[in-house]
Design a protein that fits this description.
Two copies of one chain form a homodimer. Chain A is an alpha+beta fold and 111 residues long. Chain A has a single domain, classed as Arc Repressor Mutant, subunit A, CATH 1.10.10.10. Helices cover 53% and strands 14% of the residues of chain A. Chain A contains six helices and three strands; from the N terminus they run H-H-H-E-H-E-E-H-H. A three-stranded antiparallel beta sheet of chain A has the order 1-3-2. Chain A is globular and about 35 Å long. Chain A starts with a helix and ends with a helix. At the A-B interface, helix 2 and helix 6 of A face helix 2 and helix 6 of B. Chains A, B: This is Transcriptional regulator, ArsR family.
Chain lengths: 111, 111
């Protein structure tokens, strides 16, 4: 078995109805993770290495895992890439106005 | 010096312009803390022991400290009570729609 497939294992995504608001807030409360979300709002699907964040690959993997397990992002493997999308419609349906008001406020704060 | 005044020290509150959105999100990402905020939205000023949460007093003090240092609540001493208010107007001014959309979503989620 290749090391990469051993290490990665299947990607877990909660169902939309299982997404917990407090997990989402925790996931968004970190500068790297909210930057990932902000980037995805402007650009719907990106490969993992293409986000404007400066952290080590293992740290970035951890941040993607927190976002994925909170239900904020969806990730899928395609060839040798892992592609990430925001679960924006599901989040908006479940928690109206939360994601957009938070990202708007973050953009305003950061200038 | 009385033990209580030694232990408590002065209460620190960030200025409105110093409130950081990510600290606010972290502060709200806990069930006890968001219950405190939800209670204050309905009832503007309460004494510390009157919130509908079931945690030990030392744990509750920690949760108030996290909320206070994030800029979510204001606390003042009056006689033998510590009175807590929500910094709702300042938060709404700085992060429009964030607090209310989060609390509305939490109320809807909890039913």
């Amino acid at each position: 078995m290749a090391r990469s497939s051993k290490r990665r294992g299947p990607l877990r995504h909660p169902a939309a109805t299982e997404i917990d608001l407090l997990d989402v807030l925790h996931a968004l409360s970190d500068p790297t993770r909210i930057t990932i979300v902000r980037t995805l709002l402007a650009d719907p699907e990106r490969a993992c290495g293409t986000f404007p964040v400066e952290v080590a690959p293992s740290t970035l993997s951890h941040h993607f895992k927190v976002l994925r397990e909170a239900g904020v992002i969806h990730q899928r493997e395609e060839a040798n890439r892992r592609l990430t999308t925001l679960r924006q419609a599901e989040l908006e349906n479940r928690f109206p106005g939360v994601l957009t008001s938070i990202v708007d406020a973050y953009v305003a704060q950061q200038g």
